[in-house]
Amino acid sequence: MDLTYTAEEEQFRQELRTWLAENIPTEWTVPGYWATLSDEESFEKRREWEARKTAAGFSGIQWPVEYGGRGGTPAMKAIYDEETVRAHAPQTVNVLGLTFLAPTIMAIGTEEQKAEIIGPMLRNEVIWCQGFSEPGAGSDLAAVATRGVLDGDEYVVNGQKIWTTNAMHGDKIFTIVRTEAGSEKHKGLSMLLIDMDQPGVEARPLKQMSGASEFGEVFFTDARVPAKDCLGEIGQGWRTAMLLLSFERGASGVGQYTEFRRQYDEIVAEAKRFGRAEDPVARQELARCLVELECLRYHAMHILTQVEQGRDLGSESSMTKLQWSEAFQDLWEAFEHVLGPEATLSAPRPDVDLSPFHAQDHWSRSVTIWGGSSQVQRNIVAERVLGLPR
Amino acid sequence: MFFALTDEQQAFASTVTEFLAERFDLEAVRGVVEDTDGDGHPLTLWKGLADQGALAVLVPEEHDGLGLGLLDAQVVARALGAGVAPGPWLATVLAAEAVRIAGSAEQQSRWLPALAAGETVGTVALRGEGGAWDGSGITVDVNDGRLNGSASPVDYPAVAGLIVVAATDASGTPGLYLVEADASGLTVRDQHTYDGTARVGAIEFADTPAEALPGGDAAAVRALLARGAVLNAADLVGVAREALTRTVAYDRDRNQFGVPVGSFQALKHALADLHVAVTMAEHAVLFAAHALDTDDPGAAIAVAVAGSKASDAAWNATGAMIQFFGGIGFTWEHEAHFFYKRARRRAPLFGSAAEHREALATLTM
Ligand SMILES: Cc1cc2nc3c(=O)[nH]c(=O)nc-3n(C[C@H](O)[C@H](O)[C@H](O)COP(=O)(O)OP(=O)(O)OC[C@H]3O[C@@H](n4cnc5c(N)ncnc54)[C@H](O)[C@@H]3O)c2cc1C
Hints:
The structure holds 2 protein chains of 2 kinds.
Chain A: H1 7-23, H2 39-55, H3 74-86, H4 95-108, H5 111-122, E1 128-131, E2 147-151, E3 154-165, E4 172-178, E5 189-195, E6 201-205, E7 215-226, E8 230-231, H6 237-245, H7 252-273, H8 280-308, H9 316-339, H10 355-364, H11 374-385
Parallel strand pairs in A: 1-4
Antiparallel strand pairs in A: 2-3, 3-7, 4-5, 5-8, 6-7
Chain B: H1 7-23, H2 26-34, H3 43-52, H4 70-82, H5 89-102, H6 105-117, E1 122-125, E2 140-143, E3 146-155, E4 162-168, E5 174-180, E6 186-190, E7 200-209, E8 211-212, H7 218-253, E9 255-256, E10 259-260, H8 265-293, H9 299-325, H10 336-346, H11 353-364
Parallel strand pairs in B: 1-4
Antiparallel strand pairs in B: 2-3, 3-7, 4-5, 5-8, 6-7, 9-10
Flavin-adenine dinucleotide binds at residues 96, 130-133, 138-139, 163-165, 215, 366, 369-370, 373, 375-376, 379 of chain A.
């Protein structure tokens, strides 16, 4: 084994570190800073930050230079994830576009789509939403009912999407739409790229258990989309969607570990403050969480190795999703257990503010639902990795 | 970044696995398990392992060893766990490690070639009944080169020619000492473990002459315990993976209610979770072995993670094996109990899952 990075990769780390040190305001590094802002403020700050970062050449680390990327290696992306977390940089606001849509466009988009979509996305000029889920099509993604009917050289779209992240900020949305009347399940679907700034599209916020409204509903009422704004072939939307979803993999575990490990340390600090750190049961519980976080770290190095060797992770990425989401959720369960009644109080003492902890705690309930619920991931591991019958 | 086994390491693992499949399969294991009066040390297996270099992995080349690292050694441990193979492999490798880490040049040239070739069986006595695995659980005293006290459980004491003993001197400082099998004042009592794939016993020392390992200080004791923990974890990971693979294969074909039981989601989800857990335990053992090989400052954390994760994974996977084979899994004829009992016996060695977690808490809280 060789767990070091190359000289070139370490050089990149240094450059990035220096730039981050010069560009991250100190206030951002205060734990829980982002939780003190309104949705609007936080979004605008992050949008502006992203544009600055792109201008400095620290976006699209793994993307080819021709698309405005840096042409880096998977290891550089891992370093990027680690360093940005370490420096308390905020998460990108265009995560769905950058993670899923951009690589899909690079793989199967038309020349026009490549030219028009990728650059503005990278610079955060256009924020993308993912319109897959519907009220009746969640885990059963192929059950989509939103329809698109060809009228001249445009599709007319009617239907509803739900749980759409950034619905209130989105400029465009990549959707799965049934474009073949009477078709069922995986057949007759298309991936349409729809402009959200038009009369037939209405976004409504949904209030989450945390009180925030990061997601919402999107209603299409005779919304129009040019036929050329279909990604992949018409009627082949399922295939496009599967390709798109396959891009949620790679080296992100390294950054996740860094973030979760910091949270572990913060929880330990609170446990000490409230006199819970010597309790043998509490110690066992926290250590159990740490075991899973450390395993996530090792697993991330394993995944990075696979990616660097050009292996297709396929269903193995479901294991990764299970490991990180369950480990993260368990950590916040431990927070509640270990701190006891103080855990639910935002200001248990005059000098203590636990509200950022509550934001994480509440967020942790969502990670085992979105991106394919834990139950769906277990089905995938059982059927496609272990080969158990359907 | 290369977090994986090299082709050579994989090939090494395959030779041991293939050797076991051809020359020491589960029928042979059963022979040892059912021969309750036997010494549990079949020579065909022992010679075969010696021929493969499985005993020489960690021994330096100048002492006729392969001079490799724990990462290489753990592939052997994993294969032996998967084959639930009996014998004093781990005990012998650890005895050699003690001599390598803490022995004088003379002690090294006397013992290492013999241990590497399998001519001498070694074992380690590092803790007394009820004691902890951090060096504080030693119940042997040393005075003027003589040992008094007891150690338990010790692997294969009856066939060992060389015993490495951890003992504390008058000032309470732990050290490592060599005792030969024919030394005076040495009593070995068979403790009859329920895991028939091993023979363990207690050793009583009564004014037993011993030779100190000059480098055998508290740090050396801890280093030896850490190595034992990682190799033990590798064995457990092998047990866990094999138990899971056999269970999945069975549930794929076993029909009830007109369908394979493996199509029931209750089983699928449990097996998927076990697969994730066993995979994470495999990664954890790799990382811990590498951390010790490279003197990584985070090695103590890595060892505790590997020790606890592998323990839990093997414990859970072997329990699930019996459950998901149904009635047949509870029979003597079925092999599930070999895996179950080995996991249960090994899980607490070199630190239980809970002890490793407590160590982690101390390191990070
Ligand atoms: C914070 C957040 C952000 C999201 N962002 C987006 C977004 O931007 N775009 C988007 O398109 N969607 C988004 N989603 C939606 C998300 O993808 C879905 O919620 C998810 O796929 C689950 O679908 P569902 O909510 O309809 O639950 P359901 O599918 O109805 O599931 C209900 C329960 O049944 C279980 N279940 C379902 N099927 C099975 C099965 N086969 N076997 C066993 N159990 C099963 C589930 O695990 C769950 O526990 C977001 C969700 C959240 C929580």
